[in-house]
Amino acid sequence: MINIRPFVLAASLAVAPLIAGAASLTIPTSARAASAEDLDRDADQALQKLYSSSPAAAAMGKQARAILVFPNIVKAGLVFGGAYGEGELKRGGKVEGYYNSVTGSWGLQAGAQSYGYVVFLMSKKAEQYIHRSEGWEIGSGPTVVVVNQGVAKNLSTSTLKDDAYAFIFSQQGLMAGINIEGTKISRIKR
After folding, report:
1. How many degrees, rounded to 5, is the angle at CA 97 between CA 92 and CA 100?
2. 38-to-31, 74, 98, 117, 172 alpha-carbon distances in Å
3. What's the CA gap between 38 and 168, in Å, rounded?
4. Which pick of 27, 46, 81, 164 has the fewest CB atoms within 10 Å?
């Protein structure tokens, strides 16, 4: 029996610099450390784009206690991967603070992509958690439901029962694979 681990490791080490180089060329400036003004502008534009493409998101935005907006997340990986982006927490249309979203992953994966996401904090529990925790690890704390087009069609004011709902939008690039991920959202200074 042939042990393929050395071949996989060698291939990973050979291709990783190529993917990292390609990702660095495609990373928009909004994914790099942005000023508060840049984040404000990009978050407002991203939220308007989401609202115009999803009536469910627009309706949810009117009911949410607060909204986390990450206009641009950049993700790249080859076996090991990561994603990073910066955004802001809005309450009543005003910025309450700035946050980053950091994801680490491991598994069968290759590629690079960028996307935006918005998390609507619907409950007092979710809103308090983001303020009092050292960072929100998705999968722990309040329940977050990732909304796809099928789920969005069935959402109404009477069916919104969870703590938070996330919409992913503006996906560009190609990321393929099966992996295990963890995401942490933490407050940053701007």
Report:
1. 125
2. 11, 17, 12, 17, 21
3. 20
4. 27
Q: What is the pTM of this model?
A: 0.73
b/e sequence 6-45, b meaning 16+ C-beta within 10 Å: eeeeeeeeeebeebeeebeeebeebbeebeeebbbebbbe
Look up residue 85 and give its two tokens: 């982006």
3-class DSSP assignment, residue 97:
strand
Give 129's pLDDT tier (boundaries 50, 70, 90). confident
Reading the block at residue 24, the tokens are 């660095």
Cβ atoms of 74 and 23 within 8 Å: the answer is yes
Specify whether the CB–CB gap between 43 and 68 falls below 8 A. no
Instruction: Decide if pLDDT at 160 tops 60.
Output: no
Encoded tokens for 70: 């990450």
179 exposure class (CB count in 10 Å sphere: 0-12, 13-18, 19+):
middle
- 114-128 confidence digits (pLDDT tens): 999 999 998 898 888
- Residue 106 phi, psi dihedral angles, 5° rounding: -145, 135
- Whose tokens are 């042990």? That residue is 3
